[in-house]
Amino acid sequence: MKRKIMYNRWKVSSEEIKKHQDFKAILKKVEYDSSWQWKSIGFWGTVGTTAVALFFLVIHF
Amino acid sequence: MRSINPIYHHSDQMLNQEMEWINSAKEDPKYFAPLYEKYHEQIFRYVYQRMEDKQLSYDVTSQVFLKAMKNLNKYEYRGIPLASWLYRIAKSELNQAYRDNRAKRTINIDNVQVATFMEVFEEETNSLNKKRLFNALSQMNGLDLQLIELRYFEDRPYKEIGEILNIKENNAKVKTFRALEKLKKLFNKKTRL
Question: In which domain, by residue range, is A45 found?
């Protein structure tokens, strides 16, 4: 892997780094992803239950 | 050399506080906020030390915290502080960025660090030796470069280096010493500059 050497680069101040903190945005992404996962589980749960019910209906009648 | 990780050495009280935050965050991610505030700067500096683009470094830092929060349930305190776990995630995110060609592997060095190496190598600090050092650094293998960066650029204790690289403290010490020897060899190798 090629590397680039940077000499005496300007140091980023702690204040500037702090300005870029955005915990709310990350939290939103975490919550969105976990809610999507729930929806996915719910969706596949419903599909699975329906499929099992249909299977028993077909076998009994 | 300056340190970029002044909060590595935790007292028992600080560790307990951190464990409380982690346990609360496992229940509800919003309680991760104090840990984010505590570690955001040092993770950003770790990433930016190895990258050229500042904005991309902020993005990668956010990605590190996103992954940490999503996988927090897998984190169990077994002697590895949360900071070291975050560095491991950062390392993997950085490698991903290099692989995707989003970022170029960058080595950041300043005049103080150059002078320190010259002192260790018992050489004069001049522009030719500076070029020789840069050339030697760019020729090192990935692990050796990491060890040099962690120890000599970022002034981290061997214990922490071991935790970040998943090796024992003593092993980190030996490997760092060998990496420095290799750097010295590359520095002394006659190459056209």
Answer: 27-60
Domains of chain B plus CATH, in order, are 12-99 (1.10.1740.10), 111-188 (1.20.140.160)
Is B142 within 8 Å of chain A by CB? yes
CA atoms of A6 and B133, how far apart (whole Å)? 12
**Distance in angstroms (rounded) separating the CA atoms of residues B144 and B175:** 8
DSSP label at B101?
Answer: T
Identify whether A13 is part of a domain. Answer: no
What is the pTM for the complete model shown?
Answer: 0.85
- What residues in B contact A22, CB-CB < 8 Å? 62
Q: What is the ipTM of this complex?
A: 0.86
Among chain B residues, CA nearest to A15: B41
Q: pLDDT tens for residues B116-153? A: 999 999 999 999 999 999 999 999 999 999 999 999 99
